[in-house]
Prior knowledge:
Blueprint: H1 2-13, E1 16-18, H2 22-31, E2 33-36, E3 40-46, E4 56-61, H3 70-91, E5 96-102, H4 111-153
Parallel strand pairs: 1-4, 4-5
Antiparallel strand pairs: 2-3, 3-5
Helix pairs in contact: 3-4
Amino acid sequence: MQAKDTQDIEHKKNKTGRLKKRSDFLRMRHSGVKWITKHFILQKAVAEALEKDDCVRFGVVVSKKFSKKAVDRNRAKRRLRALATEILPIYGEQACDYVFISRHGLNDAPFDVLQRDLKWALRKMDRVHDDVHDDESASQEQEHAASQQRKETS
């Protein structure tokens, strides 16, 4: 039984893609949900209709503000990419895009702490995303009820 589970996980690991175009990053910035952890910022948005497939895509942003040394920036990118390819296929939402933005202290943090933070952020983002949809549906229901009352009084 355990062999099948590891095969499923290995199969899911191959289901990650990369965001490389500036337009994708800008779309994430304007239309996505954001969650801030101690070591990175995670943004999430549903993939566009043309890009929807069964893979989870991600992008990494590490600016010179993080560190002036290219060595440190490259290490941060490698750590975030490894984190994304390990966790997102299993815990991430299918047909969604994610962007990681580094914060100070990322290179000093143990990898298991980063994994725990990412899992926590994904859980929190799903709750926030559900709450946003619940609020929209509740406001639509209130508008519908108000229009029904206006029709009845007319």
